[in-house]
C-alpha cells in the first residue's frame, strides 16, 4: 500500500502540478495572490481571479450506483455556529458550537455543557470527555463536570483542531504549527512531530482543518490535507504509510486541501469528508475506494461558496462525520446547522 502510493505520488509531483488547486498552491508559494482586490462603491471587495474559475459541474452529481447510503433523519442543533461532531460509544451525538457542547439522543438534547470559549475538537475515552481549545485542553466527566484543564501551550501559532487519547498520552493536531503535539494529561509536551525530515514527509496544512484519530490497529491516522492524502504513524510519531491522490474524480481528493475530516469504523474503513466538491466517501483500510455516502448534489445548495473552497483554503465549510453502532454515518451540516443521518443500503 504505502510504497506504491509513495512512488505514485512522487511521479505525480515530478510530472508537474495539475488543476487549479495545484496551481493555487504554486502561486501562493511564489507570493502571488489569486484573490484580487476590486474597488467598489463604498469600499473594496475581494474577488477570485478569473484564471481560477473552472467548471466542476460534471463532478457535482453522484452516480447512483456508487451510493452506498440513503438519506435518513435530520435534526436541528439549535446552534448559530456548530463546529465539530463526535459519536459516543452509546450512540449519543455530541456537537460543539458557539460556547457549549450538546449531547443528542436521536435528535433530542439530553445534556449540555457550557464553555467559556468555543471548542475546537473532542474525544471520548472511557468515562472522560477531552475537549480541545486553540491552545489547551480540558477533561470532563460525562455528566458535564470538569476534572482538569491543561497548561496553556505557549508555542507561537499553536491552533489545535483535533484531539485523540491513548493511555496517558494526549495527541493534538496543531494546524497553526503544522505538526502533532504529544503531551501528558497535564499538558506537558513530551514530543512533537510532523516537520519534514529524512523519514517524515511533513504536513501541509493550508487552512484550519487537520484531523487525527487512534485507528483500530492502535496507530494514528492523520490527514495531510495540503498533499491530498491520509497518513499512518505509530504513537511515537514514526511515519508508516500513506494513501490518496489529488484529483477531481470521486475516488480522489480535490482542491487545495482535502480531506478535512474523517472517521473510521471497527473494520478500519475510512469515512472521509471534503470541502469544495463537498462529499463524504468510504475507503477500505488500504485506501481502496468503496463508494459514496453523499455527494455535492445531496449536501450543499450554495454551489458558489462550495466551488470557491476548491481553490481558496479559507473558504467554505466541511461536514464533520462519525459512525454509530448501527453503521449509520452521522454528519454535521454547517450550512443548515443540522445533524444528518445516512443509512446504509440493505
Write down the CATH topology: Neuraminidase
Roughly how many Å is the radius of gyration?
20 Å
The number of helical elements comes to 4
Biggest pleated-sheet summary: 4 strands, antiparallel
Percentage of residues in helical conformation: 10-25%
What is the CATH homology-level superfamily? TolB, C-terminal domain
Q: How does the helix and strand content classify structurally?
A: mainly beta
CATH architecture: 6 Propeller
Number of strands: 26
User: How far is the first residue's CA from the last residue's CA?
Assistant: 30 Å
Please tell me about this protein's structure.
By secondary structure, this protein is mainly beta. The chain has a single domain (2-344), classed as TolB, C-terminal domain (Neuraminidase). It is built from four helices and 26 strands. It has helices at residues 2-15, 19-30, 296-299, 303-308, and strands spanning 35-40, 43-48, 69-76, 82-87, 93-97, 100-105, 108-114, 121-125, 128-132, 137-141, 146-149, 160-166, 169-174, 179-183, 189-193, 212-214, 220-224, 229-233, 239-243, 261-264, 270-274, 279-283, 289-294, 320-323, 329-333, 338-344. The longest helix has 14 residues, at 2-15. The two termini are 30 Å apart.
Amino acid at each position: 500500500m504505502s510504497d506504491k502510493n509513495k512512488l505514485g505520488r512522487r511521479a505525480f509531483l515530478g510530472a508537474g502540478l495539475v488543476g487549479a488547486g495545484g496551481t493555487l498552491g504554486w502561486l501562493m508559494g511564489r507570493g502571488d495572490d489569486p484573490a484580487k482586490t476590486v474597488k467598489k462603491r463604498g469600499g473594496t471587495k475581494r474577488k477570485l481571479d478569473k484564471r481560477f474559475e473552472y467548471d466542476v459541474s460534471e463532478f457535482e452529481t453522484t452516480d447512483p450506483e456508487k451510493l452506498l447510503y440513503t438519506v435518513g433523519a435530520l435534526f436541528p442543533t439549535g446552534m448559530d455556529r456548530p463546529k465539530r461532531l463526535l459519536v459516543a460509544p452509546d450512540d449519543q451525538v455530541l456537537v460543539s458550537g458557539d460556547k457549549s457542547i450538546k449531547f443528542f439522543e436521536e435528535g433530542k438534547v439530553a445534556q449540555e455543557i457550557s464553555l467559556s470559549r468555543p471548542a475546537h475538537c473532542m474525544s471520548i475515552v472511557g468515562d472522560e470527555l477531552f475537549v480541545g481549545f486553540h491552545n489547551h485542553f480540558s477533561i470532563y466527566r460525562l455528566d458535564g463536570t470538569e476534572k482538569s484543564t491543561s497548561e496553556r501551550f505557549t508555542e507561537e501559532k499553536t491552533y489545535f483542531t483535533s484531539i485523540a487519547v491513548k493511555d496517558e498520552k494526549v495527541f493534538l493536531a496543531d494546524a497553526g504549527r503544522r505538526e502533532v503535539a504529544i503531551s501528558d494529561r497535564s499538558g506537558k509536551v513530551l514530543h512533537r512531530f510532523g516537520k519534514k525530515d529524512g523519514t517524515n514527509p511533513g504536513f501541509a496544512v493550508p487552512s484550519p482543518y487537520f484531523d487525527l484519530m487512534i485507528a483500530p490497529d492502535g496507530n494514528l491516522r492523520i490527514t495531510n490535507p495540503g498533499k491530498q492524502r491520509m497518513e499512518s504513524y505509530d504513537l511515537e510519531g514514526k511515519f508508516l504509510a500513506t494513501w490518496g491522490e489529488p484529483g477531481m474524480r470521486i475516488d480522489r481528493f480535490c482542491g487545495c486541501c482535502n480531506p478535512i475530516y474523517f472517521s473510521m469504523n471497527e473494520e478500519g474503513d475510512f469515512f472521509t469528508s471534503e470541502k469544495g466538491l463537498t462529499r463524504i466517501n468510504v475507503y477500505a483500510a488500504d485506501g481502496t475506494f468503496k463508494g459514496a455516502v453523499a455527494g455535492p448534489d445531496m449536501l450543499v445548495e450554495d454551489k458558489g461558496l462550495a466551488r470557491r473552497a476548491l481553490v481558496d483554503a479559507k473558504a467554505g465549510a466541511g461536514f464533520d462525520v462519525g459512525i454509530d453502532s448501527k453503521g449509520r454515518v452521522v454528519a454535521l451540516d454547517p450550512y443548515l446547522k443540522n445533524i444528518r443521518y445516512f443509512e446504509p443500503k440493505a
